[in-house]
Amino acid sequence: MCRLPATGGEVLEKLKTADFDLVLMMCRCRSWGFEATAAVREMEKSTGKHIPIVALTAHAIKGDRERCLAAGMDGLR
């Protein structure tokens, strides 16, 4: 059984120690999702890689898509 990261820092640590094809990032209930996304995008500058990040939110409201894309995420579900 895999435990999901509880903080943005845990997300970054997992990305440093393993290869992932996709990241599903919580946004509404986990406000650190935006900060973690920015940190991932900053890390990518030195690696040249791009990991798709899809925002997950239970309460998609007007402006969420734009906010997620502005934060560096690739999409919203």
Short description:
The chain is of the alpha/beta class and 77 residues long.
Description of the molecule:
There is one protein chain. The protein is of the alpha/beta class and 77 residues long. The chain is built from 3 helices and 3 strands, in the order H-E-H-E-H-E. Helix 1 (8-17) packs parallel to helix 2. It starts with 7 loop residues before the first helix and ends with a strand. The mean pLDDT is 83.
List the helices and strands and how they pair.
Blueprint: H1 8-17, E1 23-26, H2 32-47, E2 53-56, H3 64-70, E3 75-76
Parallel strand pairs: 1-2, 2-3
Helix pairs in contact: 1-2
Distinctive features:
alpha/beta; 3 strands; 3 helices; three-stranded parallel beta sheet
Instruction: Tell me the radius of gyration.
Output: 12 Å
Q: What's the end-to-end separation, in Å? A: 24 Å
Task: Average the pLDDT over all residues and give the rounded result.
Answer: 83
Tally of strands = 3
State the oligomer: single chain
Number of helices: 3
Spans where pLDDT lies below 50 across 5 or more residues? none
